[in-house]
Amino acid sequence: MQINTKIVTGQSSSEPDANSSLSAEITVVIGAGVIGLVTACRLQQQGQQVLLLDPNGVGAGCSFGNAGHLATEQVFPLADPALLPKLPGFLLDPLGPLAIRPGYFWRALPFFYRFLRQMLRGARQANTEALKVLLQDAIAAWQRLANDASCSDLLRYQGSLLVFEQSTLAQVEQVAQGYRAQGVALSILTQKQLQQNYPGLSGAVRYAILFEEVGHTLSPSLLNQRLYQWFLGMGGRFEQQKVLAIAQATVPALASSATAPLQLTLATKQITAKTVVLCTGAYSKQLLKPLGYQLPLEAERGYHLMTSPPSMPAIPVASFDRKMIMTPMQHGLRLAGTVEFAGLKAADNWQRATLLRRHGEALWPELAGSISQVGPEACWSGLRPTLADSLPVISRSHLPGLWLHFGHQHLGLTLAAVSTELLIQNMQGDAAALKKALPYRVTRF
Ligand SMILES: Cc1cc2nc3c(=O)[nH]c(=O)nc-3n(C[C@H](O)[C@H](O)[C@H](O)COP(=O)(O)OP(=O)(O)OC[C@H]3O[C@@H](n4cnc5c(N)ncnc54)[C@H](O)[C@@H]3O)c2cc1C
After folding, report:
1. How far is residue 346's CA from residue 337's CA, in Å, rounded to a whole number?
2. How far apart are CA 48 and CA 355, in angstroms?
3. Which ligand 1 atom is nearest residue 411's CA?
4. pLDDT digits (tens, 9 = 90+) for 154-164
5. Ligand 1: does its nearest atom lie under 6 Å from the Cβ of 56?
6. How many CA atoms does the CB half-sphere of 389 hold within 13 Å?
7. 316 Cβ inside 6 Å of ligand 1
8. How many A from CA of 289 to the centre of ligand 1?
9. What is the CA radius of gyration of the chain?
10. How far apart are alpha carbons 366 and 370 in whole angstroms?
11. Domains (ranges, CATH) in the chain?
């Protein structure tokens, strides 16, 4: 694919070529989270000259501190009718597994309305199918990517556990059957089997589902850094810049042409580009609103706490009852989870992160004697970009040359490789890929 881009540098005095124009055949990727990074890497690998932009550096957003779980078993959309009876409690308990900040409920009401509609049987089935299409190839896509980027050492494919403390075997069987019906490979482990195979696990855990075909990374942030190094090594460029606005360039001679370039307004300069991919996660709604998109996109804030127990489980352990996960990583055991609707800018509620420790100790008693790590990675929050139907946007926009790639909810790490493959096939005009991506088109809203 031929991509033509013209960069016009701005007036910043810190720019050596502040008053000059420079032409280059480049593609601009906005946002350097895992979605933007993988997109930039794959486009650069194709021989395009990619400029990656992010005001916060590389991999510093939600992709920095996630639970590192390649969670291909998570085939069910987030809009689950089982949430309904619990909704009043969510509004009242600021430390519950799902919380809505007082005052924010009303602002997020349009999203919640659309979210509730996705609970209807037909919508839920369609969304499950569309998630499965991506998830079924997600691990293989990561293997292809990790192989190309030489970062396979940071990935493990040994499964993960979903543990139950309160449920009877019949109830666990019922949950397992739901997954099996969607083609998820699993086995049920009894308390005795768990104690034999995972000796650090609390005796309070009665059963677990072992998801057999899932994986995890030893460090999401190292993975991002390695992808970035690969990107730079292939000749990709990064600038720490915020994109303030996207518009179609008003070049009179080209104004009526489908090949009119896009104009990006940055803090210090303007860029005109023929091709731009927007990968700005939870921030995408703001950037797209001036272009006429009203997206039901919300930031689901989550937290992590890093700990250093004497020993760690070999694979991620998620809790059915506690709605959190513990993932063994290169630098300790990461406790992660919880969902909080508070918008993009509210201050973090660090109590939600420290609460994870109590859950962790209940599941992995050795944690009780250990101290939590200190430093910037110890307590962290990130904004999951979630659309009402739990599906990402992998789509062209109405502006020629502007592609959209965001909204991967709790599965951004899991889906980054496969979603990028589909996006690029769409950019290449592959007919089968265009059809495959229909459920993820931006015009579905
Ligand atoms: C606690 C927690 C645990 C999680 N666990 C998992 C897990 O185990 N497995 C999994 O698959 N997923 C997990 N996720 C979800 C996953 O982290 C996200 O889906 C993923 O990081 C989203 O990636 P992204 O690149 O779209 O967004 P981000 O990583 O947020 O990147 C978006 C980037 O866009 C930049 N940006 C925004 N506005 C602009 C602008 N105007 N100009 C330029 N750049 C801009 C931001 O600075 C940011 O760096 C978890 C999330 C949380 C919070």
Report:
1. 18
2. 46
3. 11
4. 999 999 999 99
5. yes
6. 22
7. no
8. 19
9. 22
10. 7
11. 5-62+222-294+390-444 (3.50.50.60), 69-121+152-216+296-386 (3.30.9.10)
- Ligand 1 centroid–CA 145 distance in Å is 19
Ligand 1 pocket member 36 (CB < 6 A): yes
Neighbours of 255 (CB within 10 A): 10
Q: Read off the pTM.
A: 0.93
Q: Residue 308 half-sphere exposure, CB side, CA atoms within 13 Å?
A: 9
Cα 295 to Cα 285, 361, 393: the distances in Å are 6, 39, 10
Residue 66, ligand 1, Cβ within 6 A: yes
Q: Which amino acid is at 361?
A: E
pLDDT, tens digit, 9 for 90 and up, residues 56-98: 999 999 999 999 999 999 999 999 999 899 878 777 788 888 9
Our answer on whether the CB atom of 71 is closer than 6 Å to any ligand 1 atom is yes
Closest residue by Cα to residue 361 from 397, 324, 398, 388? 324
Nearest CA, atom 45, ligand 1: 31
